[in-house]
Amino acid sequence: MELRRAIPPGEAASPESLYTGLRLGNRALPQRPYVVCNFVSSADGKATAAGRTAGLGGEADRAVFHLLRTQADAILAGTGTLRVERYGVLVRSEAMIRIRRDEGRPAQPLAVIISRSGQVPFEIPLFADPSSRVVLYAPPGTPVPACAAEVTVHELAAGDGALAGALQSLRQEHGVRSLLCEGGPVIFNAMLAEDVVDELFLTLAPTLVGGAELGITAGPALLRPVPLRLEWALELAGQLFLRYVR
Q1: Are strands 178-181 and 34-42 parallel, antiparallel or unpaired?
Q2: CB-based contacts of 21: which residues, under 8 Å, 6+ apart?
Q3: Residue 54's pLDDT is what?
Q4: Sorting pLDDT into bands at 50, 70 and 90, what band is 159?
Q5: Residue 36's CB: how many other CB atoms inside 10 A?
Q6: Which of 33, 63, 143, 146 could form a disulfide with 15 if both were Cys (CB 3.0 to 4.6 A apart)?
Q7: Can you give the pTM of this predicted structure?
Q8: pLDDT, tens digit (0-9, with 9 covering 90-100), for 99-116
Q9: What is the pLDDT of residues 24-68, one digit of tens each?
Q10: Is a pLDDT exceeding 80 seen at residue 170?
Q11: 143-147 long-range CB contacts below 8 Å, 24 or more apart?
Q12: Where are the alpha helices (DSSP H) in 46-184?
C-alpha cells in the first residue's frame, strides 16, 4: 500500500514511512503537551455513518489510525467515543509496539479521559486490561469502581479553562509531551474553543452520508475561526489524507 503525494508533490510512499518519526513531543510547550487530533469525515462533512466511524475509513485510514497511535505519549478520547467504539488495549500489534519502543516510547500510551459529567463507561474493555494506564479527569466525587487497569483520578476544574488545566496536569504530573485526540466532536470543539489544538490529521472519504450525523465538531460556535496551514495532502483510492498545522 502506497499513498500518492499530492501536496507537496513527490514519490508515492507507504503509510509507515509517512506517519512515523514525527517527533511530536519535540514541539511540546512547557505548560502543556503538543496536541494533534485525528478524524475521518465523509465528503459531506459527517464524522460517522450509522453512528460509527468504521463505515467511512478504508484500509489506509485504519493504517494511519494505528500508526498515529505510535507517535503519542498519550491518547485522549471523550466518553461518548469510548462508549460507542468500545475502546480496549490502545496498541495491540507487535509491529506497532516495536515502532513505539524503537522511538523511545513505552509499549502502551497513557489513556486519557476527560469527563465533565462524571459518566465514564467503566464497562469498556480498556478498564479490564491490566496493562493499561488510565488518567481520568472528572468532577469531585466521581465513583471509580475497582478494575484491572491502573487508574489515576484528578479533579476536573469547573468552568472555562478546564481542558487547559487538564493538559497542564498531563505535562507536569505525568510527563506527557505529545497527546493524540481521537474525538469525539464535542471534546474536539471544546479543545478548539480553549485554543489547545496544534494539528489536525483528517481523512476525507469519497462517501456521502447525509442525514443528521455529527460533523467532526459539535457544540457552541467558536468566537473566531481557527486558521490552518495545509502541511500535506496524500491520496489513495479516492481517499484524501490531510495534515493541517496551526
Answers
A1: parallel
A2: 103
A3: 73
A4: confident
A5: 23
A6: 63
A7: 0.95
A8: 999 999 999 999 999 999
A9: 999 999 999 999 999 999 999 999 888 777 778 889 999 999 999
A10: yes
A11: 144/120, 147/122
A12: 59-69, 79-85, 94-102, 162-174
Q: How far from 223 is each of 157, 226, 241, CA to CA, in Å?
A: 22, 9, 28
**C-alpha cell, 135:** 488518567
- Measured CA to CA, the distance from residue 105 to residue 91 in angstroms comes to 12
Give CA separation, 224 vs 60, 160, 193, in Å. 33, 16, 9
Task: Identify the three-state secondary structure at position 195.
Answer: coil
Q: Measured at the alpha carbon of residue 101, what is the angle toward residues 99 and 105, in degrees to the nearest 5?
A: 110
* Count of C-beta atoms within a 10 Å radius of residue 172: 12
Q: pLDDT averaged over the chain?
A: 95
Q: Which residues pair with 114 in a beta bridge?
A: 137
State the angle between helix axes of 185-193 and 162-174 in degrees (0 to 180), rounded to the nearest 10.
Answer: 90
Residue type, 105: R
42 neighbors 221 (Cβ within 8 angstroms):
no
CA distance 39 to 47: 7
Q: Determine the Cα angle at 171 with ends 70 and 114, to 5°.
A: 80
DSSP secondary structure letter of residue 17: H
How far apart, in whole angstroms, are the C-alpha atoms of residue 88 and residue 91? 9
pLDDT given at position 212: 86
Query: pLDDT confidence of 220, banded at 50, 70, 90?
Result: very high
Q: Give how far the C-alpha of residue 36 lies from the chain's centroid of Cα atoms, to the nearest Å.
A: 7
- Whether the per-residue pLDDT at 214 is higher than 90: the answer is no
Strand-pair category, 133-138 with 3-7: unpaired
pLDDT at 213: 87
